Amino acid sequence: MLDLDTIDRLELAVLPTPVQFGRRITEDLDGPRIFVKRDDLTGAGGGGNKVRKLEYVLAEAVASGADSVVSIGVTQSNAMRQLAGTAAGLGLECHCAVITDRFGIDTPDYREGGNIFLTRIFGARVHPCSESDDQRAVIEDIAAGLRSEGKQPFVIPYGISSVTGALGYVRAVREIADQMEPPAAIIHASGSAGTQAGTVVGGAAYLPDTRIIGIDVDAAPERVTDDVGRLSGQVAARLRLETSDLAGRVEVVGGYAGPSYGAVTPEVLEAISLFGRLEGLLLDPVYSGKAAAGLIGLVRKGRFSRDDKVVFVHTGGWPGLFAYRSEIAADLGPG
Ligand SMILES: Cc1ncc(COP(=O)(O)O)c(C=O)c1O
Q1: Ligand 1 touching residue 160 (CB < 6 A)
Q2: CATH code for the structural domain at 4-48+162-332
Q3: Ligand 1 pocket, 189 CB below 6 A?
Q4: Is residue 267 over pLDDT 70?
Q5: For domain 50-160, which architecture applies?
Q6: Of 68, 71, 77, 161, which one is the catalytic site residue?
Q7: Residue spans in the chain of domains classed CATH 3.40.50.1100
Q8: Measuring CA to CA, which residue among 195, 295, 197 is closest to residue 250?
Q9: Active-site residue flag, 77
Q10: Hey, is 93 helix, strand or coil?
Q11: Which of 188, 315, 318 for a ligand 1 pocket mutation test, highest count of atoms within 8 Å of Cβ?
Q12: pLDDT by residue (tens digit) across 125-143?
């Protein structure tokens, strides 16, 4: 396998992120020992999992001579926020196509608060678009407009989930392998597949006996499984990793997303409350909260033994809490 350190990368994240034992959540769930990999603390742009992907993707952008970046996400995209924040620090003009109608929530908090608010503070230009638009055509149009102004844009796919981006999570697994004894499982939110493609390949390379479990946040576990399978194969090929059982390592668990992406379920509200009250950790209702709901659900179903160590990768997303403020506040109750 290629040495990861031979691939161009910008140091954008605060690494290594800590692995912390969740003593109180472990006691409360009375199951395996739960460790939290604090990828919410990657720093740049408010932190989260995308900064690791951007270390590789923006290295490629800078090497190509780009002076601007173009990508696409929903109104409350953590990816756009982290792209805008890291691009700002590098002096790259950032253009975000923002899908404003992916789901029905239409409150001022959702439309203007949370991630989109921070994305604008980082100076990104926002280009509203619709879920029904062809994503690739939308970002290519923006890029064509920039080229006609003499600029050199670099186009980044939804979720920063390219082969290059996924390398960030191969590296994250190497980091975990350096930080602790091999855990029984690594669990994290999975949507556009880049994070899990990286952890699956990283698992094959550095933690072969550890299960990699992605919790589907898109309410589309079959699609996520297919995407992770395809992308992890491409990542393994990019790294020239010889492995025969990559497909067997792809484990995507459905049933915790609710009826649709972004739906606020009783299970996600419970997860947000438990991690907040017991560990002082901020989860979001769309990603890390869904992953935690999946972790809690699997523990309660007895899927792990008490001797197991389970790593929950906290992928960030806290600004989303402010977009769903009223839904979450209603659950907290008075005082
Ligand atoms: C906070 C957070 N966690 C997890 C994910 C899922 O990562 P991926 O899209 O690589 O599957 C995302 C993606 O947007 C995210 O913002």
Answers
A1: no
A2: 3.40.50.1100
A3: yes
A4: yes
A5: 3-Layer(aba) Sandwich (3.40)
A6: 77
A7: 4-48+162-332, 50-160
A8: 197
A9: yes
A10: strand
A11: 315
A12: 999 999 999 999 999 999 9
